[in-house]
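Recall the central idea of this unit: under ordinary conditions, the amino acid sequence of a chain determines the structure it adopts. In this exercise we apply that idea directly, starting from the sequence alone.
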Amino acid sequence: MKKNYLVITLSLVIIFLSGCANDYYVIEKQYYRIKKEAVKIYNNPFGSPPKELERVVGLFKNFSQKYPNNNLSLDAEFETARLYAVKEEYDKARGQLKTIINKYPNVKSILGEAIFLTGNTYQAQDNWNAALEQYKKIIRQYPATTKGLRMPMYIASYYKLKHQPDKMISAYQEAATHYKSLKSDKNPLLNYVLSGLLARCYIELKDWENALSTYNAMLGEYMGKTKLNMDTVLLEMAAIYSKELKQKDKTKEMLTLLLKHYPRSKYRNVAEKLLKEMSKNE
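Accordingly, the structure predicted from this sequence is:
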């Protein structure tokens, strides 16, 4: 009797889980049909009529209201803001992003993304000061989030793109100082990310000595001691030794270490080719 009861219970559980999976598939399919409609506007924002924008925005809003607990609901809310932005209805975009911020006051990753997109709307209007205020807010309030970590480099790259070298150098220097200040013995993975970003700042500043010093510290801390791959670091170091410092021996050393420690690296063919070319030129 107990055996039959267990079989019946297990069957009901399987049926229930199967139904949940099917429901999610139906919801997901419905959502991506709406996204296809949005793509048409993204591809031709000024050719699509205002009524089409409001129709698609309405579809996203209805979806979020109908499935508030589905993870696609949040994506739909962000898509609404992006649609307004691509149509240059920036006030509406910022209004939608403010709604998201108020709805998720304790979720740092969501807040960072919403504030970043708010900054993007100001940047699209050539109001860099207002955009910068939003970007710096992310750095201050959510420094260890994905967006928070990227913001200092994003700001510096803006000045680089705008050919403002003094502001670019100052921004990369500020970014380097900021990344160093975030390091903590309690979070080795964060330290790994911060070290990589710090090295990139030094490379942009053409401070080869500090870039190599940072990379060497990463090799000492992570190579062979963790599962974190150092093949990108070794290739970056080889590039600095080869192109900037013209040190062939050190270039060879880095490439040889890459092949030794990471024989299945995606950079294997590149490393082997470079070593072969260097041997020919000797």
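DSSP finds 13 helices and no strands in the chain.
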